Amino acid sequence: MVALRLNKTATESIKKQENDMNKKISVKNPFCSGEYVVYPAHGVGKVADITKQTVAGSELELIVVNFAKDKMTLRIPMAKAETTGLRKISEESTMADALSTLKGKAKVKKVMWSRRAQEYENKINSGSPVAIAEVIRDLYRSENLAEQSYSERQIYEQALDRLANEYAVCENIAPAEATSKILGILAK
Questions:
Q1: Which of 98, 166, 168, 181 is the most exposed place for a label (fewest CB within 10 A)?
Q2: In 3D, which of 126, 128, 107, 106 has the Cα closest to residue 118?
Q3: Averaged pLDDT, 151-164
Q4: What is the DSSP string of 72-113?
Q5: What is the reported pLDDT for 3?
Q6: Is residue 77 packed enough to be buried (19+ CB in 10 Å), middle (13-18) or exposed (0-12)?
Q7: What is the pLDDT of residue 33?
Q8: 55: which residues sit within 8 A by CB, 6+ positions away?
Q9: Range of lowest pLDDT (17-21, 107-111, 135-139, 182-186)
Q10: With contact defined as beta carbons under 8 Å apart, do 96 and 63 qualify?
Q11: Which range in 15-19, 39-43, 54-58 is most confidently predicted, on average pLDDT?
């Protein structure tokens, strides 16, 4: 009798887990083919397709994102899109906050470069335009200031590229024009 109750409870538990999994799998798709999205680790990409594919015996709904600049294609399971940080292009208000962050005073901590570099990389990979703008603001050097180290320059250029690409898509302008607008804000 006790074994029967345990089996019945276990069966109910398994059915509940299966229902939960089915709910997770049938996530409503917030992305459309042809729209631009931001993947935190790679920047701005374009949704090429939303497709279903069988992987290891289970069917997955995948978002196919192309990053033309890097010549890379990424397939992200729909159920994992939110946890990976995939998001739509920022709204104008968020972009305005990022641009106003550029106008602020640089905040450089008196910490070893390796630790600051790691913090900067984390901010860039967060995908937040405001955090990326903080990196740009802190690492920006005008023409008359001291040279940057190679690693500083690399991080600065990566952050500038990420913010400029998202700003370009948000404002529907060329990335080069977005970069020059950002540099104009920094030079003031």
A1: 181
A2: 126
A3: 93
A4: EEEEEEGGGHHHHT-EEPPPHHHHHHHHHHHTS-----SS-H
A5: 45
A6: middle
A7: 84
A8: none
A9: 17-21
A10: no
A11: 39-43
pTM for the model stands at 0.77
User: Residue 11: beta bridge partners?
Assistant: none
φ, ψ (nearest 5 deg) of residue 46: -115, 130
pLDDT tens for each residue of 5-40: 444 554 454 445 444 444 444 446 677 888 999 998
- Asked whether 47 and 64 are in contact (CB, 8 A), the reply is yes
Domains assigned to the chain:
30-88 (2.40.10.170), 92-187 (1.20.58.1290)
Which pairing describes strands 43-55 and 72-77: parallel, antiparallel, or unpaired?
A: unpaired
Residue 112 pLDDT more than 70? yes
Q: Which residue has the tokens 């913090």?
A: 119
**Residue owning tokens 């159920």:** 79
